[in-house]
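agent> fetching stored inputs for the 2-phosphoglycolic acid docking request
agent> found them:
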Amino acid sequence: MRKKIVAGNWKMNTTLAEGIALAKEVSSFVTEANLNSDKGVVIAPPFIHLTEILKNVNTDKICVAAQNCAADENGAFTGEVSASMLQNIGVKAVILGHSERRMYYNETSLTLLKKVQLVLKYQMKPIFCIGELLSEREKNIHFDVIKQQLHETVFTLTADDYSKIIIAYEPVWAIGTGVTASPEQAQEMHAYIRSLIAEKFGATAADNTTLLYGGSCKASNAKELFDNKDVDGGLIGGASLKMSEFSAIISAM
Ligand code: PGA
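agent> prediction call returned; pasting tokens
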């Protein structure tokens, strides 16, 4: 049975004090909500705050994730943070393939696959993002784009490795724009992604994959998105920085 998840991607926001305060609020909320074991909450603060935040949350109840990691194991890579460093401080998951990383830092499928493999090697969970541009949707090639993104990356893994992945569908035109995919658009793409997984790894693997939606998901639209049978929660950017919004999104799961 797949898990439902709400994950907050804080991106390059918060001071240390703000991050700790927000993480504590999320932690208390989730602890009190006493969610069923088939529901999970993730927060992904900036790298530099991870150690302190890990000390301030109930790690039995929430998962602390990183927003990225290096594509190499260790060595002369100035400014990079390795998967093993993240594992060493207690990080349990890593967001990879976010469209902002693909666009602004030229991350290719090849780079992303290396990162996925390292995250798995260090026993953390990749939250792997895929999504099409507005121009690709307008040209009606969005299904092909998603298929290619999967085939070049996580579909090259062994079935065992694949089973540890969470996928987030994030149409690029919906990220940070205030334009959300309609529940029908989200469900249509999620069902398609699940059918591709079934083709590649079989029906059970498809059924067990947690598929998150991301892109301007907020308190006011979370429920209508999450109510779709193939939408198993969300990857939340802007709205994860405000506790009133984020808690309502968690409650909508
Ligand atoms: P948004 O970002 O919720 O601010 O649109 C989502 C994401 O980038 O994961």
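agent> quick read of the result: The chain has a mean pLDDT of 97.
agent> awaiting further instructions
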